[in-house]
What we know:
- 2 copies of one chain form a homodimer.
- The first copy, chain A, has 366 residues and is of the alpha/beta class.
- Chain A contains 15 helices and 16 strands.
- Chain A has helices at 42-47, 57-62, 66-71, 75-79, 91-96, 123-133, 151-171, 189-202, 218-228, 246-255, 264-270, 302-306, 309-317, 321-347, 351-363, and strands spanning 2-8, 11-18, 21-25, 27-31, 53-55, 85-87, 99-103, 108-111, 118-121, 137-139, 178-183, 206-209, 238-240, 259-262, 273-276, 279-282.
- In chain A, a hairpin with a 6-residue loop joins strand 8 (108-111) and strand 9.
- In chain A, helix 8 (189-202) crosses helix 9 and helix 10 packs antiparallel against helix 15.
- The longest helix of chain A is centred in the C-terminal third of the chain and has 27 residues, at 321-347.
- The termini of chain A are far apart.
- The A-B interface holds A 34-42, 59, 63-64, 68, 71-72, 78-80, 289-290, 292, 306-308, 310-311, 313-315, 317-318, 320-325, 328 and B 34-36, 38-42, 59, 63-64, 68, 71-72, 78-80, 289-290, 292, 306-308, 310-311, 313-315, 317-318, 320-325, 328.
Amino acid sequence: xxxxxxxDNKARCGKLKTAHGEIKSPFFMTIATCGSVKGLRPEDVKxxxxxxxxxxxxxxxxxxxxxxxxxxxxxxNFMNWDKPILTDSGGFQVxxxxxxxxxxxxxxxxxxxxxxxxIFLTPEDSIRIQEKLNSDIIMxxxxxxxxxxxxxxxxxxxxxxxxxxxxxxxxxxxKHQLLFGIVQGSVYPHLxxxxxxxxxxxxxxxxxxxxxxxGEPIKDMYKILDTTLPELPENKPRYLMGVGTPENILEAVExxxxxxxxxxxxxxxxxxxxxxSSGILRIKKEEFKKDFTPIDSKCSCYSCxxxxxxxxxxxxxxxxxxxLQLCSIHNVFFYLKLMKNIRKHIQKNTFQKFKSDFLExxxxxx
Amino acid sequence: xxxxxxxDNKARCGKLKTAHGEIKSPFFMTIATCGSVKGLRPEDVKxxxxxxxxxxxxxxxxxxxxxxxxxxxxxxNFMNWDKPILTDSGGFQVxxxxxxxxxxxxxxxxxxxxxxxxIFLTPEDSIRIQEKLNSDIIMxxxxxxxxxxxxxxxxxxxxxxxxxxxxxxxxxxxKHQLLFGIVQGSVYPHLxxxxxxxxxxxxxxxxxxxxxxxGEPIKDMYKILDTTLPELPENKPRYLMGVGTPENILEAVExxxxxxxxxxxxxxxxxxxxxxSSGILRIKKEEFKKDFTPIDSKCSCYSCxxxxxxxxxxxxxxxxxxxLQLCSIHNVFFYLKLMKNIRKHIQKNTFQKFKSDFLExxxxxx
Lengths: 366, 366
């Protein structure tokens, strides 16, 4: 399913075949938590260059429920999106959003963050839900350990996560869906290595690295990548979950990661934090009141082609819905353009120079 | 500037020439309070069939300020809208939104509803602001009397409003802008007639009927229209301000009104109240949970062409921005389609039948 096209040092570009089309890697998955990329229409997401979006199983299970999505013909039909979709397993949200009741080897009991309803979720349930959502890539149900996390707890948790991974693989029926395992083990290199080895034995269509970007120092994240990635098979895609800033992505690509997802572009947009070629621009600042240039004059997104900083600032200050749309469209476009450039430069074996040029420009003080 | 093309009993269709193009009447002006139709992009507004939008002088004066809009090249450039714009005078908002301090013959002292700042606004200021905004149709500064309003107060207020109208006409310099007078006089027929006669003498490019839809019984609104409209010149457009429901619009068109504006389509959209050919549909209701038909299967708007009731309901229940977009696009489309049909049927002298068919369908219980 995954074909490696070129490597530039450790950075890789390739293509991943899914039931809804091929995806060029490395790629970034824009978040569509509840079946919608916040502030964007499906057309906007496509125009921004998205090859795939990520839906959250936990949210969709609670609302509207996988049976309704299934009745609509699956998540693609429900949200009117015909390109690939990855769904997570719900694990991360159970541990971060819900009021957690109890973890047993069988599964997790928790309370819905929406109405407090008590819900029992097993690895088997997670796979069944994702099968009903009919996404293209589905994830194993795992425990995402928090930071900090004792070695003892991390080891105990990892054992359950590995058992759950086996059960997920076993219960999965739909052959059109790709199933990814998730490496856990907190910040402990030997646990990460063990996890990678165990999952490799189970044999998945791809491997995710979970439990990072949860508050650990950034150098720990890179260290874990350096430790874990060599343990993963070269012919399978590697997905760093929940990451990250443009810099994080570049660092991880350099180490051999193929897939990313993060709420940063859309969430930051809604707070008026806009990504530009010369760093983050806080559009609500007074200094943009009479600035009739685009958000980023080097950007060709809809927002930059049609509106000025002064107008976008005015919309954001006035709490106008259009402001949220324009900022979200811009940030998603920025992230996906970055990925496109990353792919181009890995293909041309010029990734290193691209990375350092990009970061120099992005991090320089305006 | 205004050409009458046909009359069907008292209903009129015509065209109004403005600096940014010709508008077919009767027409409805979608509200763009702060320089944006809430939830829609300029393209959406055009695709919905809008010929003109309405900007609020009061809001734009407070934020971002007319000088910034003027620096951007006027409101059209600022908001990236190249079709006609009407701005109101700010009068209505001063009386409805701001904490009013004092009305004198010279002008009005009030506190901004945003930051409480004390502001003094005269008829001359209102015209100067509207000239800076560079809208196509500008309105005289008036006192919009509330309901109920004593005859004594209505008469006293009307005298000031008429004097203000004269001052607005006198100060106006920009020949590309059309200036409309506003008939006031509360629910008192003789005051309305007096107001119409006085304004006619001053000679405006169009005449608005203000101070209705402020809480008076609906039959009073129609009675005032019946009394006032015959007093207005036939060769000038007649604008019923702030109205209204589809039924109100049909009733007013029947009596000879050419122009309307109202927040109903956009505001109702944000609450999930959707206009359909068979009445108002409350999309958040449980019954639409598994309804995979469009909002209105007879509608050809973007939302109805691409999404289902079940999905739109899910988005609204989940507070997703896309839900607000889809509902707003639909409602604006509905209103503008209604106006298009009204024009078509007046042209064909079949307005009466269209009106009764439409209302029968719209008001029938589902």
